[in-house]
Each structure stands twice: as structure tokens, then as C-alpha cells.
What does this fold into?
Amino acid sequence: MTADQYLQNILFRESVDVSATSPVRGIQSTIRPLIQSWAGQHLRGISPSGSFAKGTANKSGTDIDLFISLAETATASLGDIYNSLFETLKAAGAAPKKQNVSINIRLNGYDVDLVPARQQNMLSEDHSLFRRRANTWTKTNVATHIAYVMYGGCIPEIRILKLWRNQKGLDFPSFYLELAVISALRGQGGTISQRVWNALIYIRDNLATARMVDPANTNNVISDDLTAAEKAAIVAAARTALGAKDWSEIVR
It folds into this structure.
């Protein structure tokens, strides 16, 4: 079996149904009454986002990300919005876990990340969301994120490197990883194994210093979400991967 066949087999094994009839989409309807009760008249909508919407999801990863859009009339601080949603989920027995901008729960056997955000004004889809690690807020646009990754030409490579991240236990936020892979492979051709290899080289040589910005807000520096020590751990893992004798040592 060639390296490309090996990686393609993994991608097939990890494929996710994102169609309109996908069972995981039912989570949106299941969670809506609780979210509606929490948000009241401020709820604008709940929609798939993150890896599920971008096409970069793997079966063994988070099943779905749901973006919770609140109207600008929700005047509580973004930190209070985030924490009150966490407490609501906790009171409902959902066993929530705080992440950076999302809250993770298990629901009906699915792994779900909930991202609460507030629309900045009625004339755009720009939203403000809470960044827990930095204890601050940032402006972003989920539709811009989805389009940037979907049309970045690197979805198979991103999916393989997300599996590598998960299997090696790395703290490498998904959007940061997606931006890094797109930066690494911009303008490059090659087979999937060559491109994944080149992305690992880029991570080894550039991640510690490369500045990654949000395509929806250049003031939001995504690479600031990790400390120098956290980046060093990813760089070390990439270096180890590049020293592997077989692809099975890198990703399974």
C-alpha cells in the first residue's frame, strides 16, 4: 500500500455525513428548547459551524459545532453570557466543559461544541464572542471562516492533521490548525502524502513564530491563543513525525 492509499483509507474511515439528512443535525432541534429558554427574545438562531460546516470534520472528533447567535439587544457582558450558558447547561445535567470560545457537552451520544456570540449590529453578520483564555472578547464572522476554509483547497490535509493532533494529544485549536495548513500549502501541488508532509515541515519550522490572523478580523491574532510552550509542544511533535519511518507512526 502506498502512502497516499494509506491516508485515503483513513479519510474514508473517518468520513462524516454532513448532508441535510445527517442524524447529527437533529442535535440542533434537540438543544433548541433549552437555548431558547436561556436566551429568550435575544436568540437570533442556532446553526452548524466549525469543522462540520467547513467539511474538515472527522468521525472520531467533535460531532458538531453549533453557533448560537444572540441579538445586539443582549446587553450582558460576553463573559457573563458565556458563563450563564455554562451554568444553564450544568443545571440541565449536560455536564458542560469550558473551552476557549465554546462549551462542550455530550448529547444523545454526540460530542457537541456550543459557541455563544452576540451580533454587533443589524447590518452585518459580524459577531462578538468571549475568549476565555485571554479573558477578553473579539469580533469575528463565522460565515467568513467557513468560506475561507472550504475554498482553501486543503480539506483532506487538514483532516489528516486534525487526526494527528488528536492522536498525539496536542493542544492545537482547530481554526489555528486550519489557518496553518492553508498557509503551508498555498500555491503548492502534490499528492496528499506530499502535502501533509509539507504541512508538517511548515509547522516544525514556522509555527513558533508565524503570525496567524482571523480572515474576518485582522486585529484578532489567532496565533496568540497558544503560549510559546504550547507552540513548542506542537513543533516538537511535528519534528518527531518527520523522523518517523512509517506513516502509521504519524497517524492511524
